[in-house]
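Write out the 3D structure for:
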Amino acid sequence: MTTIVEVHDVTKRFGSVTAVDGVSFRIEEGKIYGLLGRNGAGKTTLMSLLTGQEFATHGDIRVFGETPVENARVLERVCFIKESQKYPDDFKVKHVLRMAPRFFPRWDQGFADRVGGDFRVPLDRKMKKLSRGQFSAVGVIVGLASRAPLTFFDEPYLGLDAVARQLFYDRLLADYAEHPRTVVLSTHLIDEVSDLLEHVLVIDDGQLLVDSPADELQGSATTVVGGREAVESFVGARTVLHRDGIGGLVSLTVAGLSAEERTAARAAGLELGPVSLQQLIVRLTTGRPTDFAEEAHQ
């Protein structure tokens, strides 16, 4: 698989605030990535660095083998859709869609028209007069129809209702299958997108916490339920991501159980349950066990 993004020891500071702190990772061609984390974790800043909108304070970034800053060869292959996108005051929806081909060489106008019809976007309405959902829909249309080899979606669909969000996911998957490219989704709606993701990057407090294939990550934690003494004895010194209990019963979420350990737990009368990707990310970013990433791959 071809690597199209390389990030090495990148830090970004705004005054005394460190938004991205010593981050290193790679993004490969032809995958859907999830860039996940809490609000203020550094996700938008990281995407701004990758799309050449910010300069790194320290470290090196290569996109398609080159620095993205003020680099037309790179930027014409990248699309960055964000919720806070700004447009000229007099711009209507039709103006946005008419200008898009100038920035995206692979733009598909027919596809944009079809998706615009699906979302029922009013072409003659000014962007500043759109509802939040309509504004989000325009971003979705541009991001999908750009067919950019590297496309970032930074929470652009927050204004969409559940039906419209599902429409976005369906259109994304169908067009991705027909026109493969690399897509990075930054979202807090983790359960909704979990089935789309092939690889997960988790950032918290500016630091990269997890860099893992989605299927490996989702299978890397288990909830162990049973009597307090039996559960505590079984878990031992393992990293505990989350703890619940009432009376004599306790539920612990732990990382890195092998098949043999699962068999032993059941033989001891303990119940084992799966942990959704959203539950895992929430527990991981609130607990911050430093050795989770290593245990998840044991």
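Confidence is low (pLDDT under 50) at residues 289-298.
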